[in-house]
Amino acid sequence: MTDVTTDPLDALVGRDLAGRAALVTGASRGIGHAIAAELLTRGASVTITARKPDELAAAADALVAEAAGGDADRVLAVPGNAGSAEARADAVTRTVERFGNLAILVNNTGINPTYGPLVDADLDAVRKTFDTNVVAALGFVQQAYRAWMGEHGGAIVNLASVAGLRSTGVIAAYGASKAALIRLTEELAAQLGPAIRVNAVAPAIVRTRFATALYADDEEAVAAAYPMKRLGAPEDVARLVGFLVSDAAAWITGETVRVDGGILATGTLGSA
């Protein structure tokens, strides 16, 4: 629960996040972009970050046109590398300056530069994976806490993965980093409550450019392993995040919610 109030009428018409500002990292495409669109649709103002300025600017234009109803004042693009402390501070500071608050943080940025057995993994690649997927997420939380949430409260969602819940073999370093992010989520929830809620979501394979290598060879066969008989869409994850940062989830913190098409219920991750 934050001290940013929402008009009951806004909640009634589906704009339950009106008056709140969100920062979504890694939001130039894929799941991050869909999350930004979901939050905008629900009334929030949104800052998006990503490394490539041109792609980020195009993503911001699309969000203004499609999700913000043409209101450019509700979308801010701040290019920067999540691994940079300076870039993290810049994104947080500019969000508070532009919108007057930072009630929502979504740590979506993630990388997966190494595949295969951990005994053969390049340690520099593993180190970079943890630095981006775990340390940078904590860095954003620290910045958001100092700039606004520590005094006013808020909601944080970390993008984990089913690979952080079950061994995959093929994306082992990535999975280990996401397992660490899940534990980080629990620790932060225990330390920052009651004013700040911290949750994670754990998707299985979602049809994005990031995950292409996991399904491109035979999407139909990969999807057949899922009880829902399809891969995820970015919007499947975005709607869950929208719920978790809303007041409808006011008594949920420290949780990692699976959005996996039922794949973990089968006892295997297949090729995920």
UniProtKB/TrEMBL annotation:
Family matches, as PANTHER family: DEHYDROGENASE/REDUCTASE (SDR FAMILY) MEMBER 4 (PTHR43943), DEHYDROGENASE_REDUCTASE 4 (PTHR43943:SF2)
Protein name as annotated: SDR family oxidoreductase
NCBIfam families tied to this protein: PRK07231.1
Family stated for the protein in its record: Belongs to the short-chain dehydrogenases/reductases (SDR) family.
PROSITE patterns in the record: ADH_SHORT
Coiled-coil ranges per UniProt: none
